[in-house]
Amino acid sequence: MADMKLWLFILLLSVSSGFAQITYELKENIPYYDTESQKSDAYLKERCKLDVYFPKDTSNVATVVWFHGGGLEGGNKHIPEGLLEQGVAVVTVNYRLHPKVKHPVYIEDAAAAVAWTFNHIKEYGGSPDKIFVTGHSAGGYLASMVGLDKEYLKKFNIDADKIAGLIPLSGHSITHFTIRKEMGIAGTQPVVDKYAPLFHVRKDAPPILLITGNREKEMLGRYEEVAYLYRMFKVVGHEDVELMEMDGYGHNMVYPAIPPLLDFVRARIE
User: Is 165 helix (H, G, I), strand (E, B) or coil?
Assistant: First the structure.
């Protein structure tokens, strides 16, 4: 009996030690534009920063790039609670906002942050082959645009198809309403132009998981436009696209969306 107790004690100690070895670190307010760009634009220097949250003493981990919501007019970088201590690195991004800037600056900033991630994530134990881009609402829209319109990342000599997966949470599929406002177009008037993810549907896009709130609780028309994006991906022959509707939740559906987001990531890195 004494030997059995000793064996159990050693087993529990080793398991506890194994868990204790996984610690996380947060590096904050890292500029993602070069020094010259920061010197030439005070608002860029103030706003275009990101945080990196990562498991220490690891390598080749997956990275989730997170863009906050706020209608392209508000919001700040943060890490959704469900992404903490999940074995992935998280890059959370601030970008410039309306009315201080206008389109396509929001998308250009998002692309610059994703490019920074490709170029630097190895320094934090991440793999450039395992970068997933996501965000909620306006952040989901930015994730879609960066991943689907290849021109934005091309400016940084990065192929958007190298993104391991896109996971927009309740993001516009048509042109964002703030961009429509800048064009003098009413928010009730849907537009599909080059600033719409729908405009850039293609068979060879990265794997994509589309998540919205319940269609009866979501922002007007949001589920339907995302469902149409899903359908058009199927029409063009995209082989790895999923649509998920979070029953019981409206537009603020980040919390229940994180587990399927992580499942999507893990399924594509195993």
Answer: strand
Q: How much is the pTM?
A: 0.92
Other Cβ atoms less than 10 A from the Cβ of 260: the count is 15
| 219 burial level (CB within 10 Å; 0-12, 13-18, 19+) | middle
Domains of the chain: 23-267 (3.40.50.1820)
Residues 235-253: what's their mean pLDDT? Answer: 98
In contact, 213 and 245? CB cutoff 8 Å: yes
| Residue among 86, 80, 91 at smallest CA distance from 119 | 91
Tell me how far apart the 2 most distant CA atoms of the chain are, in Å.
Answer: 80
Token couple for 154? 């091309």
Residues 266, 234: contact at Cβ < 8 Å? no
Q: In this predicted model, what pLDDT tens digit does every residue of 127-137 receive, in sequence order?
A: 999 999 999 99
* Ordered DSSP codes for 225-240: HHHHHHHHHHHHT-SS
CA distances from 38 to 32, 47, 65, 118, 270 (A): 9, 10, 22, 20, 39
